[in-house]
Amino acid sequence: MTYDHDFIIIGAGMAGLQLANAFLDDSHFKSKSILIIEPHQKNPTEKTWCFWEKGPGIWDNIIYKKWNQTQFIGNKKNTILDLDNYSYKMLRSNDFEDFVISKINNSRSVNIKYDSVINIDKHIVNTKTDSISAGHIFDSRIENTFYLNSKKVLIQQHFKGYFIKTNAPVFNNKVFTIMDYSIKYKDDTSFTYVLPFTENLALVEFTFFTPHVVEDQTYDKYLERYIKTFLKINDYTILNKEKGNIPMTSYPFYNSNSNSLTKIGTAGGWIKSSSGYGFKNTEKKIRIILENIKNSKPINSNLFSRKFQWYDKIFLNVLYYDNKLGETIFSKFYRKNDIKLTFKFLDEETSILEDFKIIWSLTSFAFIKALFR
């Protein structure tokens, strides 16, 4: 059968543009026809994406800031962690989008059509203005069944952040704060996350890992309290704000995959469900997909590890039923393990022996209960 395109990517968000960029960077796909279908010409809301990696990476030319040290503050103790051969890197979504769109505009293989998708019928994508076929479709839209499923375990990583500028130099821009439990909302797993860009500029974000959400003024109350009480800053300007909600869930998004369709990004279950990180995980999934295509394997082969899915389910189960334990769990996780092993575990690259070391450090009655559940 002849198709209009070899591949269609629905959505020009993080996953869609990462996939398009990977196609452009691989000479194997130079002769392929790839179409991105996106309803918006420009995303009005800028986001920040962070990830850790060893050494140089493919996004280094547009990295906004990187750090080689972090601090974890919990159970009334501050722990400084040296990332060693890892770096923690931050990208701004506008820089990322401009970078990839510029490459697309200068390519012959990838094009963008600004239109809204109505539905997909096997190899055919029906939009408001057209019906277009492809050998394979990559879809970043979350299925309605996710919202309707009442049995799923869902921890919502919801947050609000202030980009603040101070008159006085108050930040140590060499160390970022991955979690600070100095203030918490009730008994919920909630903490502050701080990314210092310069001595006068930082992102301060109040974050929840909870089954429920809160009203907007709750974030503001705790952000203002943290900035005044713990950062000891009284004079500052809010340059911008960001707000988001990332699903941390064991819901089987990948069940929607087929021989003609692959769900990508959040819609594909590409967000690491025990951490909420997705940028580097997306890069890894895309690398597997491209190798599958080049080796004539089913496109959706080997995208997930059952072992790590099981670990994530246990962790989510603990947070769902005993949410107050978050500070204790993360304190053990970051303090009892070498940070390199911690990152390796979150990247799903550890051996069984290394897994056991991590799990043993977290073992508690709550984990045993979650295991049996």
Give an overview of the whole structure.
With 373 residues, the protein is of the alpha/beta class. The protein folds into 3 domains: 5-74 and 90-148 and 250-294, FAD/NAD(P)-binding domain (3-Layer(bba) Sandwich); 154-248, D-Amino Acid Oxidase, Chain A, domain 2 (2-Layer Sandwich); 306-372, no CATH class. The chain has helices at residues 14-25, 93-105, 144-148, 216-229, 279-294, 306-321, 326-335, 339-346, 352-362, 365-372; strands at residues 5-10, 34-38, 48-54, 65-67, 69-74, 77-82, 86-92, 110-114, 117-121, 124-127, 131-139, 154-166, 175-180, 190-196, 201-210, 236-249, 261-263. The strands form 3 sheets. Strands 1, 2, 8, 9, 10, 11 and 17 form a 7-stranded mixed sheet that branches. A hairpin with a 3-residue loop joins strand 10 and strand 11 (131-139). Helix 1 packs across helix 2 (93-105) and helix 1 (14-25) crosses helix 5 (279-294). The chain is globular. The mean pLDDT is 94.
Compact overview of the structure:
30% of the residues lie in helices and 31% in strands. The protein is built from ten helices and 17 strands. Strands 1, 2, 8, 9, 10, 11 and 17 form a seven-stranded mixed β-sheet that branches.
Please supply descriptive tags for the structure shown above.
FAD/NAD(P)-binding domain, seven-stranded mixed beta sheet, 373 residues, D-Amino Acid Oxidase, Chain A, domain 2, 10 helices, alpha/beta
